[in-house]
Amino acid sequence: MKLQLDISADEMPIFLAETEEHLQTLEENLVRIEQEESDPELIQALFRAAHTLKGMAGMVGHTRLVNLTHVLETAFDGVRKGNLGVSSGLIDLCLDAIDGLRVLRDEVVQESPDLVDIEPLVEQFSIFLETSIRANQIETLESTPNQASHLNIKPKAEAAPPAPQNGNDALFIEAHIASNSIASAARAFQLMMALQGLGKIVDMSPTQAEIESVAPVSVFTARLETSQSIEDVRKELSLISEVEKLSIRGKEEEVETTPEPPSQPAEEPSIAEPTKLGEYLVSQHIITQKQLESALSAQKQYRGAKLGQILIELGILSETALENHVDEFVRQQRAALQNIQSASADKSRVADKTVRTSVERLDNLMNLVGELITDRNRLNQLRNKLEAEQQGNDLVMVISETVGHIGRITDQLQEEVMQIRMLPIANIFNKFPRMVRDLARKTNKEVELLVSGQETELDRSLLEEINDPLIHLVRNAVDHGIETPDVREAAGKPREGTVRLSAHHEQGRIVLTVADDGKGINTDKLKASAVKKGLITESEAAAMNHEKAVDLIFMPGLSTNDKVTDISGRGVGMDIVQNNILRLNGTILVETEPGKGTTFQIILPLTLAIIPTLLVHVEPITFAIPLVTVLETQRLTKASIQTINGRPVTIIREKVLPLVYLSETFDLQQQEQNAHHNYVVIVQSSKQQFGLVVDSLVGEEEVVVKSLGALIGEVPGISSAAILGDGKVALIVDVQSLVRLATAH
Question: Are residues 410 and 487 in the same domain?
Fold first, then answer.
């Protein structure tokens, strides 16, 4: 049976994308709140995300998504109001609920209902909430102090909330939705849901019924009663996409102070948080910090009482003195609020406009830019040929200038498109805190994940490709690298292990690092395992240095672990990790020290679509070597070539450099080589350097990467191809697999 939802085909991608954004927000903040329980902003963010997600699900008619989100919203509301404490049990249930929500989201993608039965989870969650809230209430009643029982203040009644006094908490919101939005009703719905999470909506246009009818909305207006500041409300609403203009103001005619009844003491304005007046009084040395703490403690028992009333009842301040100080406080608050409004208005006028677009369009745009780059290269070649043949010709000079201008525009266009395709690696990194938390609990380990460089950007295609290798490395670090707390303690280490995940740009490349402070890789066991499996001989193992022994970890099926786990297997996969990195024209390096830990470093180009290369010629083929792997080039003479253990090498700056002849590696039929016309391109492969021997150097050129296609398939030593400016095809070299191929050859 097909899942029936009240949503158009155009709106569906937006709904799915924003659902995933809210789920990521929930998951990330849940893991954070486990360490930062007292952070009210995190709790509020969790509540808002659940509240908005529930509203979105309700709008499209996904009842099961609404039901499961509702229990999450109830939990966060309980924590927010102090009726429920943050515990591991609550976090576990919330994360289980998020996993369930992702399955429900997949139901929408696959148009298949009932992929998962959520009722047991909803029931379990509801029972947990009811039991925990009741227990918390009993504990609160039993522990309520009597220190303020003498105060002449009545607790707040359970009646309907009173009308806002002085209008200070009435805000007027006007939001203009982008005219080209295909989901304007959804944006209005998000605005409504966000405001409901911030306070009470007194008036709204369009009405909720009109919004739910999915009629187009251009302007959304509302009157909101809230204790939140204008800046807080603006910050929340600014997160909603396609809102082009946002105006938030207080009702000016009601901002003026209304005289208080004689029997009532002065109050702090509602635009301030409960402790703001107290902070002001302490900063002016009117009361002491200890007196403020006593008053705040008493205020908790009488939620209807204002701080000023408490201070008078406790005899800390007289009513007259309080009124005088509050008048000055109100004046300062108004001045500050006006400054905030002015700054916010200026900021909103210059705010960048954003628009969502499909990935397919970006890919098509990148392909067109690639074709343009190919034609630019061809024009450059034709220009050079014309200039050589027609020196001083006026027409040639004009053509040359035009070609140069086209080249500059093409470069700018390429840069802009590349920036559009760039995404912060936080899109991947944000998944790991949850994963490490779950793995640590499953393996009975204490693990801290330290993440840095989340803002580092790389091409979205690379982002997708690097996800699985990073997951494998982090899982290995927790499962195989970090020791159990007792073992670490016995070794003189902290009980809690550390896994570091980082990213940064370096010389036009992106460098990703996964490091742990665990037990390291036992190279003796690694060599013994390789010998046992017949991958190397005992003599080869004995001759291996530390670096070569560590690289054995990338051999298929090799491991030093004595047992299989369901977390990261038994070493199977590190060879796949390396192959995936090589396929991306990247490099993976590993360093380890027994008892100290292991570090994996992945070096990648910034994009897979267009790469800078060094073009070389080996008759009759032109090869493109990715510049990211090239260190330098040298002229190679016959006298400089030597042989060690039957293999050709050359000595450069007193360092032995193994040589790889491309002509021999690819079985290119050539006449006897004239060594006087050979060049060597020195490249980096993992931790080693090699020299690729070629006939001639053509020059540097940016090339558009093209797949070899299904008919050709995989070619050892070649990753892909490129069309050059003269229309010829160049083969793009996969340096690491080429070196392995040459060694085997």
Answer: yes
Identity of residue 411 = D
DSSP string, 524-567: HHHHHHHHHTTSS-HHHHHH--HHHHHGGGGSTT----SS-BTT
Same domain, 330 and 366: no
Q: Say yes or no to pLDDT of 321 above 80.
A: no
Query: How far is it, in rounded angstroms, from Cα 64 to Cα 116?
Result: 10
Q: In what order do the strands lie in the sheet with 447-452?
A: 447-452, 497-506, 509-516, 597-605, 587-593
Q: Which helix (H) or strand (E) holds 511?
A: strand 509-516
Q: Tell me: do 602 and 616 sit in the same domain.
A: no
- Euclidean distance between CA atoms 656 and 653, whole angstroms: 9
Number of domains, the chain:
5
Give the predicted TM-score (pTM) of the model. Answer: 0.62
**445 and 487 Cβ atoms separated by less than 8 Å:** no
| pLDDT tens for each residue of 623-633 | 999 888 899 99
**Per residue in 13-57, pLDDT tens?**
888 888 888 898 898 888 888 877 567 888 888 888 888 888 888
Amino acid, res. 293: E
Contacts of 637 by beta carbon, 8 Å cutoff, 6+ apart: 675, 676
Angstrom distance (rounded) from CA 362 to CA 422? 11
Average pLDDT estimate for 83-93: 85
Give every CB contact of residue 279 below 8 A, 6+ residues apart in sequence. Answer: 292
Strands 497-506 and 447-452, sheet pairing: parallel
Partners of 176 in the β-ladder:
219, 245
Q: Report yes or no on 547 lying in a domain.
A: yes
